[in-house]
Queue: 2 jobs
Job 1
Amino acid sequence: MASRRNIPYNRLPADEDDDYDGNGGRRYDPRFDYTPRSLNKVPWKSIALAIFLLFLGCFLLLLSIFIFTGHMTGDRSQAYGLLGLGFLTFLPGFYETRIAYYSWRGAAGYSFASIPDY
């Protein structure tokens, strides 16, 4: 294995008090910056994916119901397959769309930051 000589190494602090500055507070750490604008960024791709999954799930569930009731031709096994796929696409689409709707309405405890950005 080749050695990595271009990596700058820093010594670890010998004492835990080295993490503090001289005034009794912690040193500035940019990882924990609070920027309200970045938390209110709307993840449009994720919302579009959630709406697509919601409608696809509704469509697949509707097709399975039509096969079960006999309004469409098909085997029962096809209806069970469509029912399973319908649930698998409907549930995440409904969940993410619900979070996006409550975030848009400004409900307490919901924000666009809780939706993963793809």
Note: The helical segments are 36-39, 44-69, 76-105.
Job 2
Amino acid sequence: MNDKKRTPELEHSHKPEAVAQRLQNTSADNVFSDAVLGGIDGCVTTFAIVSAAVGAGFSATVAIILGFANLIADGFSMAVSNYEAHQAKQQYREHLKKTEAQHIKLIPEGEKEEVRQIYAQKGFSGNQLEEIVATITADDNLWIETMLREEYGLQAVDKSPRQAALATFIAFVMVGTIPLIPLFITSLNIHMQFLYSSLLAAMMFFMIGSVKGFYVHQPIFKSGIKTLLTGGSAASLAFLTGYVLQNYLLSAG
């Protein structure tokens, strides 16, 4: 690397203790993606309800009831689904772990050959390759973890299903409540309530997208706008659906 590009922060982050600390922060503690998913979906869900209710000509009371009912039900459903998905990953990993342990016990030479070919494909050969194979296969736990990672592409640690579900539900409810707040301001008419709800929803979409962009080292403004457009499109479809159905049902009646 060019010395001009080296910074004190970059050098500090590559010191032995910093590297060790970073490697300890595994995906088990990372529920950021679950929170982002829950937040976006929560805001889309409730604001879509508000948009559809206003488009259909319903009152703020109806929008609040439908909004909170969907907020709790959908948030819980999404959290349970996320829990089941992560639990299924863990169960699948445990199944493969037991399978590999059994294979190592029954056909160790065959499993050693798998390790040998895996690292041969990485460019190792001769004595160096044999030393790697000997080192890995000398420890059954290391051997199994190596096979899970290299043969099946599974990481050593996955995030807790409970933590993932909780992060999803909390973010879903917290962010999803924001677009409903203006509906409680009875001094405003339904159109002004919808306007303020739209502004708050837009702020939430942009904020979540910006935070996501910052976290994954992408342009913050671009990421915020992208999420805003995605959420806004969903809300627009909901408003249009409510408006069209309301007018169709009135004309049909």
Note: The chain has a mean pLDDT of 85.
